[in-house]
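Researcher: Sequence recovery benchmark, item below. Answer with residues only.
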């Protein structure tokens, strides 16, 4: 992806992902949020997909959020089947872990909303 779309690392701390998801849910309940332009799709950097898939997982879950730039985004999390619970549970890679020191759980961002990051010539772009 071009540098112009780069808003920083696609790895974000889980705690930040929680804030973004909560902001999205609260925004949807406000008058301003209801007036906000609808997002029709997302442009997802290959880097984001590679990082989330580079885990011992069986599926990927995407949560909706609003990032620091105020854009609607997707937050990607690996998921693994839990036979006892009979559901796919979220699993989090830890970033910055050193021997004897626990790392910070991360989730993955980088998705950009369509519009404005859409292909105007695509038959999927209204």
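Model:
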């Amino acid at each position: 992806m071009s540098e112009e779309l780069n808003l920083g690392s696609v790895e974000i701390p889980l705690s930040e992902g929680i804030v973004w998801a909560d902001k999205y849910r609260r925004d949807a309940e406000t008058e301003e949020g209801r007036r906000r332009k609808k997002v029709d799709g997302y442009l997802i950097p290959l880097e984001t997909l590679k990082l989330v898939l580079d885990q011992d997982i069986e599926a990927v879950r995407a949560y909706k959020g609003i990032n620091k730039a105020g854009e609607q985004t997707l937050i990607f999390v690996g998921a693994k089947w839990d036979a006892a619970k009979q559901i796919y549970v979220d699993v989090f890679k830890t970033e910055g872990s050193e021997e004897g020191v626990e790392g910070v759980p991360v989730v993955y961002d980088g998705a950009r909303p369509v519009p404005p990051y859409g292909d105007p010539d695509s038959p999927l772009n209204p």
